[in-house]
Amino acid sequence: MTMKKMLMVTAIMLTPFMARAEVVGSVDTTFKVFGPDHKIMVEAFDDPDVQNVTCYLSRAKTGGIKGGLGLAEDTSDAAISCQQVGPITLSDKIAQGKAEGEVVFRKRTSLVFKKLQVVRFYDRKRNALIYLSYSDKVVEGSPKNALSAVPIMPWSR
């Protein structure tokens, strides 16, 4: 195996599994003559480590020529709402607080340096999962954030 292949395999193995978002829909916010319009995207993703929790994320998507080419930087505006969609069983790692602030979703929002992230916390006292979305940059992040709590409830059919 070549050195390049070994580095790629190592990078894949060291990258924690992240949820992938499905586009639910979008609305245009600003008409652009050239390139796609500015939009608000609505996406859904399932927590990769907690079965039966689905999060819905709305975020700004920059259009225009730069946006169409993937060169624009999206704003840090985002909102999140997470729900229990079936019975939840927590792993020992999460229940014991060893996965606090674990990244469950990440999306690049600029060509190189900016990303939107969702991290999970477990509030043992209230038996709830908390999901925090925020945007960060290599040099300077944004204080804009959104929060969603999922109380873990008994589930019956």
- The Cα radius of gyration reads 18 Å
| Biggest sheet, spatial arrangement of strands | 1-2-3-4
Main sheet attributes: strand count, strand direction, barrel closure = 4 strands, antiparallel
What would the average pLDDT be, to the nearest integer? 84
Estimate the strand proportion. 35-45%
Helicity range of the residues?
Answer: 10-25%
Shape: elongated
- Order of SSEs, N→C? HEEEHEHEEEE
Distance between the termini: 51 Å
- Runs in which pLDDT lies below 50 for 5 or more consecutive residues are 3-15
How is the topology of this model organized?
Elements: H1 3-14, E1 22-30, E2 38-46, E3 53-61, H2 64-69, E4 78-84, H3 92-95, E5 102-108, E6 114-123, E7 128-137, E8 145-151
Antiparallel strand pairs: 1-2, 2-3, 3-4, 5-6, 6-7, 7-8
Short description:
The protein is mainly β. The protein contains three helices and eight strands.
Can you put this structure into words, describing what you see?
This protein is mainly beta. Helix content is 14%, strand content 43%. It contains 3 helices and 8 strands. The chain has helices spanning 3-14, 64-69, 92-95; strands at 22-30, 38-46, 53-61, 78-84, 102-108, 114-123, 128-137, 145-151. The strands form 2 sheets. It has a 4-stranded antiparallel beta sheet with strand order 1-2-3-4, with no helix packed on it. Strands 5-6-7-8 form a 4-stranded antiparallel beta sheet, with no helix packed on it. Strand 1 (22-30) and strand 2 (38-46) form a beta hairpin. The longest helix has 12 residues, at 3-14. It is elongated and about 50 Å long. The model is unreliable at 3-15 (pLDDT under 50).
